[in-house]
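Predict structure. Chain length: 400.
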Amino acid sequence: MATLIRTTFVKVVSPAQGGKIAGCTIIQKRDIMGKTLRESLPPRPPKPAPFDYVNKDYTWFRSLFDRTTHRLDENSKVVIVEGPVAAGKTQFASALAADLGMKHFPEANMDIHYIQQGVDLRTFNDRVPPDTRTFDHIDFNNCPNHRLAGNYQIMMYMARFSQYIDALAHLLNTGQGVVLERSPFSDFVFLEAMFSQKFLSKGVRSIYYELRGQTIEDLLRPHLVIYLDIPVDKVQEAIKKRGQKHEVCGKALTPAFLQEIERQYKNKYLRDISTHAELLVYDWTGGGEVEVVVEDIERLDFDQYVHRDEPKMKDWRLPREVEWSDQRMIFTNNKHIFMNLFNIPRTDVPELVTSADDMHAYTQVVYGDPKIRFLEGYNAEAGDTGIAMKNKMPKYTEYF
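Prediction complete.
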């Protein structure tokens, strides 16, 4: 069973403060409730149907009739699950989301960049110049000192950033809370671990933090972060037990690299995020029970942070409906604007620069393919119809 670690930056509610009386407090304060507690309550009036934010923009006119707060309830929150490699985050996050009635977002990966219109760009690697080939987590584990390792980590930050916007849009348009595995806020942990092992250069690190500095503050920070703590030696055992060849036989997941990940998590990330979000840290060496975590979550008082100068939950203290609608419009309609913030005029780091000749050769091969030559929905060769009558581009498409 998991053990809750008591530290200076984790608020722990003792069992004496819980019990049946605490249950009443939760209902009154509208804090997060698990499945068992929700089912014990009288039926509530139905909420408005989820808004189709994937295919439609949320406009000012729509905001007059479709109020954002009408869908929100005590479980309309952002929960992040963090932890080392092979800690069991996916299984835990999925089970936690099911108990809390939230949407589970598995950890972001390079597919967000490399799968375009159903085509995996990795299939072109044998026909494009080396500097333009794809480079994902498998490649990194096998060859962490590769020239493309720095570009990989920056693209991973972009993938997590993109997914987090999707999660915020989902919450604000449906009222359903979200559980994510890792987030853009913790991504620097891996950047620093890579830098400590000389897997990337000072130039890459400089550009990474420049990108992070002009993007991260635009996001709403999470309500709750859960860290599954496992010692490095047990992490190595878990990696071997999982048996993925690129992890077991690769050169990246060394004890020093894993130790630096743990150090960055505990000395930097957890301390920083705890000033904005609630934080629960568990000794997950032998695994744990989701029900125990849910009980701890139910004891947290999210509504105590009401003072205007209180940093915790500051991003979510929006007193007027118009402010909720504004945030909803931003994350529903403007993802392309957020992603354009990653275009910075820096050409001083060679490993992040592709030559014009190589890029031309790459474009000829990849975008010469009939399946991805045109935007999604506009490709007659792929079977799309009614193209002449279409006058709107896809809501958002990533091309990197």
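Summary: The first helix runs from residue 19 to 29.
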